[in-house]
Each structure stands twice: as structure tokens, then as C-alpha cells.
Automatic annotation (TrEMBL):
Pfam families: Ribosomal_60s (PF00428), Ribosomal_L10 (PF00466), RL10P_insert (PF17777). Residues 113-182 form the Large ribosomal subunit protein uL10-like insertion domain. Keywords: Ribonucleoprotein, Ribosomal protein. Residues 302-313 have a biased composition (Acidic residues). Residues 283-293 have a biased composition (Low complexity). One of its GO terms (molecular function) is large ribosomal subunit rRNA binding. GO terms for biological process: cytoplasmic translation; ribosomal large subunit assembly. This is 60S acidic ribosomal protein P0. GO terms for cellular component: cytosolic large ribosomal subunit. Belongs to the universal ribosomal protein uL10 family. Gene3D superfamilies: 3.30.70.1730, 3.90.105.20. Ribosomal protein P0 is the functional equivalent of E.coli protein L10.
């Protein structure tokens, strides 16, 4: 049987998690591998204004969420249960998801390659001067790295992919990187999935900009309209095109016959006397500069009258 203190801690944790589920509607599922306590403190402090970071055992979090859903009838949070696998935690937030994710990324720190660690990415050693003396060439020979002695130091002559993503770091690789002063890995809270209003989706969705989304929707609507018009199947996006096409057909019939309707009158008038419309446009264009010229002349005349009045006062200030 668990002790009284453990039961009290579990009840306190359950109360805290249920309170967050009640207050928030969205959160991040984050992976916390190799994140230190000091790093956690910085992350919590940076997100304190709009977000709450909650870690805990997966079994405890699942139990609390399951009981909350049963008690309240709110099954939207039940989708989190399958995502709580591995060393993960929850970041509840009321802020903009893209902004909060970028804020979490700020607290990524560099880390050395430790022996036995699974590499999260490829580690590439560029061609460079190492600054090491020739007595340490054994490290490079063990790793099949081509080198030469230049001005009393070891120089790497070509770029080498030292460690591949997913491989374990060996002792020779770790020692070499330490001697070169390279910290190839970065660790921090990594956003694994996003939960919003009952839906789980990839954080890559947050990278989609509004312009890209509008362009994609516009392309899809254009294709739907084209297919609808070709199949003579009316849809919301094809009806405007069908109406315009119908209007053009009715207008063509009206022009070819004596049938009149208000929208066709202007077209018929233009066809009867195009010169009237051609002369109206230049006249309107010329009228605008003429009006501007008259206004400018009036302004200049007003300024001249004011100057004359100042000159004809008949006395000076010293009379």
C-alpha cells in the first residue's frame, strides 16, 4: 500500500492536472529527453505569462485524464492518451501556438557528444586545422579521417560525416569532438504534437502561412469550378461563372435581335456610335488637368493680392 504522503502527492497532482484541463483548451506534447533541471527552470520562467509546463509519469497523467473525462463527460482530452508515450510532458497555453512554439525553441542549449548517446542528427567534421600536435594523430587514424601535418599541427584535409543520425556515439568520436571543442548536439523541449480543441496534429502545420493556405484553397476552388462547368453540375463556386456565361448569351441574343433589357442598352449604344464613347474619355481626361490649372491660377492670384496689400500700407513701422 502506498504511504499517506504519496497518496497526498498523487491527489495534489490530480487536482492540478484536472484544473489545467478545465482552464485550457490547447497544449503541446513535448519530448524532454536530455533536458536538465536548470534548463527546465528557464523554460518555465520564460513561459510563465501565458503557459504552464507540466511533467509527470505517463501512467499518472493518463489516469488523471481518463478519470477527468469520465467525471465531466468531456471526451476531447481523451485524444491525449495515445500521445503520452516516452519521456514527454504537457505545455498548456492560452497564447498563439506559433509564438509559444518559437518561445520554447529559444531555450535550446548545445551539448557535447557523450559515449553511448544516440545521435539526433548527423555530425559532420569540416576540413580545418585542429590545432592539435602531431602526437595525437591516432584519434584520426582510428576514425579513418584523412589528415596532414601543417605548420606543426594536424589539419583535416576533407569533410567527414563522423556520426550518422540514429547511431550511438563511440568513445573515439566523443574524444575527438571534445578535443576539437565541438558541441554538435542541441537539447531542449521538442514539440512532438499539438492538441487544440480535441484535435491532435503535427507541429509542421504551424509552419503553414496564411498566404500559402489561401493560395492552396484558391487553386482547389478553381479546379472544382472547372470540373463543375465541364460536367454541367452546379456548385457554389461554379454558379457565378454559369450566371456570367448566361448573361453573355442573353446579351448576344439581344444584340442580334430587337429584344431589349436595361443592361443591354449601353452595349447597344456603344455599338451604334463608338465615337461618342471614344471622345468622352479624352474630354474627361483633359477636364481634370484644366480644373487643376484653374485652381492653381486662383491660388497664385490670391497670393499676389496679399503681397500688394502689404506693400500699399502707406507707412513703415518706423514712421
Amino acid at each position: 500500500m502506498p504511504s499517506t504522503s504519496k497518496l497526498a502527492k498523487k491527489e495534489q497532482y490530480d487536482s492540478k492536472l484536472c484544473g489545467l484541463l478545465e482552464e485550457y483548451e490547447k497544449c503541446f506534447i513535448v519530448v524532454a529527453d536530455n533536458v536538465g533541471s536548470k534548463q527546465f527552470q528557464d523554460i518555465r520562467r520564460g513561459l510563465r505569462e501565458h503557459s504552464v509546463v507540466l511533467m509527470g509519469k505517463n501512467t499518472m497523467m493518463k489516469r488523471c485524464i481518463r478519470l477527468y473525462c469520465e467525471r465531466t463527460g468531456n471526451d476531447s482530452w481523451a485524444n491525449l492518451l495515445e500521445a503520452l508515450v516516452g519521456n514527454v510532458g504537457l505545455v498548456f497555453t492560452k497564447g498563439d501556438l506559433s509564438v509559444v512554439r518559437d518561445e520554447i525553441k529559444k531555450y535550446v542549449v548545445g551539448a557535447p557528444a557523450r559515449v553511448g548517446l544516440v545521435a539526433p542528427k548527423d555530425v559532420v567534421v569540416e576540413a580545418r586545422s585542429t590545432g592539435l600536435d602531431p602526437s595525437q594523430t591516432s584519434f584520426f587514424q582510428a576514425l579513418n579521417i584523412p589528415t596532414k601535418i601543417n605548420k606543426g599541427t594536424i589539419e583535416i584535409t576533407s569533410t567527414i560525416n563522423l556520426i550518422k543520425e540514429g547511431e550511438k556515439v563511440g568513445s573515439s568520436e566523443a574524444t575527438l569532438l571534445a578535443k576539437l571543442g565541438v558541441r554538435p548536439f542541441e537539447y531542449g523541449l521538442r514539440v512532438h504534437q499539438v492538441f487544440e480543441n480535441g484535435a491532435l496534429y503535427s507541429p509542421k502545420v504551424l509552419d503553414i502561412k496564411d498566404d500559402e493556405l489561401l493560395a492552396t484553397v484558391s487553386t482547389a476552388l478553381t479546379r472544382i469550378a472547372a470540373a463543375s462547368l465541364e460536367l454541367d453540375y452546379p456548385t457554389a463556386v461554379s454558379v457565378p461563372h454559369s450566371i456570367i456565361k448566361g448573361f453573355k448569351n442573353v446579351l448576344a441574343v439581344s444584340i442580334a435581335t430587337d429584344y431589349d433589357f436595361p443592361l443591354a442598352d449601353k452595349v447597344k449604344a456603344y455599338l451604334a456610335d463608338p465615337s461618342a464613347f471614344a471622345s468622352a474619355a479624352p474630354a474627361a481626361a483633359e477636364a481634370a488637368p484644366a480644373a487643376e490649372g484653374k485652381a492653381a491660377d486662383k491660388e497664385e492670384a490670391k497670393e499676389e493680392e496679399e503681397e500688394e496689400e502689404d506693400e500699399d500700407m502707406g507707412f513703415s513701422l518706423f514712421d
